[in-house]
Amino acid sequence: MRTERNLTRLDRVFARLDREPERPAHLDVPQMSRHRVALFSATLAFYLAIVWLVVTTSWLVRLDWQVMFFRPYQQWSEIHWFVDYYVVLGQRGPTAVMVCAWLGWRSWRQHTLRPLLTLGTSLLLLNLTVGAAKIGMGRLGPHYATAIGSNEMGLGGDIFPSGHTANAVVTWGILAYLASTPRARRWLSALSAVTSLGVGLATVYLGTHWLSDVILGWAAGLLILLALPAFEPLIARTEAGIFTLRDRLRDRRARTAPVTAPVPVPVPLAQRAPAVRPDGITAARETAARPPRTPVYLAPGPHTTRAERAPVTPAGSRRPPHADRLPHGQGNPAARPLSGG
User: Fold this and answer.
1) Which contacts of 106-114 are long-range, i.e. CB under 8 A and separated by 24 or more positions?
2) Most distant CA pair in the chain: distance in Å?
3) Could you tell me which residues come within 8 angstroms of residue 222 by beta carbon, excluding any fewer than 6 positions away?
4) What is the DSSP letter of 307?
5) Taking the CB of residue 103, how many other CB atoms lie within 10 A of it?
6) Euclidean distance between CA atoms 332 and 324, whole angstroms
7) What is the number of H-type helices and E-type strands within the chain?
8) What angle do CA 104, 179, 186 make, to 5 degrees?
9) Which of 8, 67, 134, 303 shows a CA-CA span of 20 to 30 A to 1?
């Protein structure tokens, strides 16, 4: 009987990750619709209203002072350690690294730079708008307040609006903005709203921001998320330009690379076809018809002993040849002088 293995949830996750990545044919890019334009306009009006209420030292400033005098960090001191860690979710460095790692993986899997470019665009808008507002209004925080009941504006501070809150709204909200399905977008929107709300209240608990700073930070982050569709054409052109530059660099590298000659493949002698002469006789048949040659290292004639060889005067010798000189061992004994006895 054939049995199949029951895949666990972890096995299904790894099986999904091991699929071959494909570039989506159609990306769900949000458009600047009328509904979004209306939300953007309402949020901008709310932003300006908060600024006006603080500048005119209205009831909102009095509420700021009441919350500050309440000192939440003393009222609920047992959660101080948790709030110290939770407020990190609104800091620029750690949150940008975490979200960038996730969006970088999505860019690699989908073969598109849109997630990373969208994150970079939102952070750039955040630095420009929130940073300019902080410097322009120059409000001091609760720990550096100079006069009770004042709005502390224009005194060289940099806390209005809250950067932690705005950064939490943008950094975690960008995940909902780039979600691929409507259901995932709804869940991620709710999660990012709760996270940014907790970060803002954590700064009020620690006494680093006024309550109005947090409210304005929420509005500032939401304005950036609502305005992102207006920058989608610029993001698309930037992505196309980066890919075009990459292709040009690849072509230039291919043209400047040194061309190496192909290495000839040695052919075994047994596979070579015999050469054929014009008359149809192959080299092998011609070689077989020839008589065997005498090795060059053998003498051409019959071999004689050393004593039977005729004396030969070496070439270039100064000694003239003697006709009466006989070969060695064949001389006349009578012609030899007798030795004295």
Assistant:
1) 106/178, 108/21, 109/21, 110/21, 110/22, 110/23, 110/24, 111/21, 111/22, 111/23, 112/23, 112/24, 112/27, 112/239, 113/238, 113/239, 113/242, 113/243, 114/27, 114/29, 114/178, 114/235, 114/236, 114/239
2) 164
3) 43, 169, 173
4) G
5) 21
6) 11
7) 12, 0
8) 145
9) 8
The gap between the terminal CA atoms of the chain, to the nearest Å, is 126
Helical (H) or strand (E) element with 31: none
Task: Answer whether residue 273 shows pLDDT above 60.
Answer: no
Handedness of CA 178, 182, 184, 185 (dihedral sign): positive
Query: Residue 161 and residue 170: Cα distance in Å, rounded?
Result: 14
The residue type at 321 = P
Give 263's DSSP letter. Answer: P
Report, as an integer, the average pLDDT of 167-189.
89
Assigned token pair, 290: 């020839």
* Average pLDDT of every residue of the chain: 78
From 211, 167, 183, select the one nearest 64 (Cα to Cα). 211
For the entire predicted model, the pTM comes to: 0.67
Give the tokens for residue 16. Answer: 């999904």
